[in-house]
């Protein structure tokens, strides 16, 4: 039985081409910056993301936290949405590593609001922390995409205040596909950007952090401090290189599958799904029924070869990815319908 895994796009496996590239790539000691494959990945990532330089990271979390550490010092403040991955899902690392204060703002549907951010910037006052960084996310963890005009407005406001902007672009290529723009149209309104290669792009491991040459050199030292100085990392950079060059071209398929899934789910009695909110590869839906009903869904699907994270208070998320095709979407819809009918 084929297992259909829609828990996340992090479950994607490296392609055959990626596995073969791992075998043949030249390697060296990357702490000496001697690994030709890592160097090539970093140059290519910088070019694609429209920045001067880039740095290969083990994970999106390492990449974001290295960026925060590099921009913000102990006791300084960073402004970000209260639902941001950096605030909620990185184990409180901002407090532990940078030692910075998080000023989290409540944005409607997670959509950053320029006026609210500007209002949260601290004035020069002996009592106040210094605002050192604004963190954005695109695509948002709720599957929505921040329009380019909003990115531009916030970036220009930040420049007026002399504050850098970091973007958690774990899914920035999904955002670019959804907005119908080159990814550089988004990243140009950031001073640093972190982009995950191991999600929809299918690399086995890794993210890249991109920014100015000067920023990346400081980030390199912080990555070393975090134990992230890798040696013959070319074997990981080789599939990552394929991921960043080739795999954005296929993300529209995941988005189409997600829309198809949402359209089907909203027709199932007892399920509430706003298909118009599906912009990338994430589908959110709610089961309006007793706790016993929604709590049983993931176990029922698992027995039928469909992996879904357990719902939280009746809310579910399914994420389409390279391992899921249109036939699988039909299978998911058929099984969810059967569950709801029983
Ligand atoms: C928006 C966002 N940022 C950052 C990350 C962190 O990536 P990693 O799991 O590679 O640490 C994730 C992971 O799911 C994410 O969804």
Describe, in plain words, how this protein is organized in 3D:
- The two termini are 23 Å apart.
- The model has no long low-confidence stretch (mean pLDDT 97).
- The protein is built from 14 helices and twelve strands.
- Strand 5 (131-137), helix 7 and strand 6 (165-168) form a beta-alpha-beta unit.
- It has two domains: 4-10 and 250-341, Aspartate Aminotransferase, domain 1 (Alpha-Beta Complex); 16-246, Type I PLP-dependent aspartate aminotransferase-like (Major domain) (Aspartate Aminotransferase, domain 2), CATH 3.40.640.10.
- A seven-stranded mixed sheet has the order 2-8-7-6-5-3-4, sandwiched between helices. Strands 9-10-12 form a three-stranded antiparallel sheet.
- Helix 3 crosses helix 10.
- The protein has helices at 16-24, 36-49, 60-71, 85-88, 93-98, 114-120, 148-161, 172-179, 184-187, 213-225, 234-246, 251-265, 291-303, 326-341, and strands at 4-5, 53-57, 77-81, 101-105, 131-137, 165-168, 192-196, 207-211, 271-272, 282-287, 306-307, 315-319.
- Helix content is 43%, strand content 15%.
- It binds pyridoxal-5'-phosphate.
- Residues 10, 59-61, 64, 85, 137, 141, 168, 170, 196, 207 line the site of pyridoxal-5'-phosphate.
């Amino acid at each position: 039985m084929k297992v259909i895994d829609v828990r996340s796009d992090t479950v994607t496996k490296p392609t055959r081409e990626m596995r073969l590239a791992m075998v043949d790539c030249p390697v060296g000691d990357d702490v000496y910056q001697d690994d030709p494959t890592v160097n090539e990945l970093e140059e290519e990532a910088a070019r694609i993301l429209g920045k001067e330089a880039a740095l290969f990271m083990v994970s999106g979390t390492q990449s974001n936290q290295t960026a925060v550490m590099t921009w913000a010092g102990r006791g300084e403040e960073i402004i970000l949405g209260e639902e941001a991955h950096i605030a909620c899902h990185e184990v409180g690392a901002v407090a532990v590593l940078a030692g910075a204060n998080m000023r989290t703002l409540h944005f409607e549907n997670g959509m950053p609001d320029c006026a609210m951010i500007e209002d949260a910037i601290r004035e020069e006052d002996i009592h106040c922390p210094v605002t050192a960084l604004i963190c954005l996310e695109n695509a948002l963890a709720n599957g929505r995409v921040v329009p380019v005009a909003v990115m531009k407005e916030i970036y220009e406001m930040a420049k007026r205040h002399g504050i850098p902007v970091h973007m958690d672009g774990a899914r920035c290529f999904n955002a670019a596909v959804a907005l119908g723009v080159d990814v550089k149209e988004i990243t140009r309104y950031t001073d640093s950007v972190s982009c995950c290669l191991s999600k929809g792009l299918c690399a086995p491991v890794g993210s890249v952090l991109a920014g100015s040459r000067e920023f990346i050199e400081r980030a390199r030292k912080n990555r070393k401090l975090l134990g992230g100085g890798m040696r013959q990392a070319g074997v990981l950079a080789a599939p990552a290189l394929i991921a960043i060059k080739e795999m954005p071209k296929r993300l529209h398929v995941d988005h189409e599958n997600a829309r198809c899934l949402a359209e089907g789910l909203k027709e199932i009695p007892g399920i509430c799904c706003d298909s118009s909110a599906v912009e990338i590869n994430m589908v959110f839906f709610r089961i309006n029924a007793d706790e016993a009903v929604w709590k049983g869904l993931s176990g029922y699907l698992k027995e039928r070869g469909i992996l879904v994270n357990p719902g939280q208070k009746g809310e579910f998320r399914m994420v389409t990815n390279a391992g899921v095709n249109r036939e699988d979407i039909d299978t998911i819809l058929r099984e969810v319908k059967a569950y709801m009918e029983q």
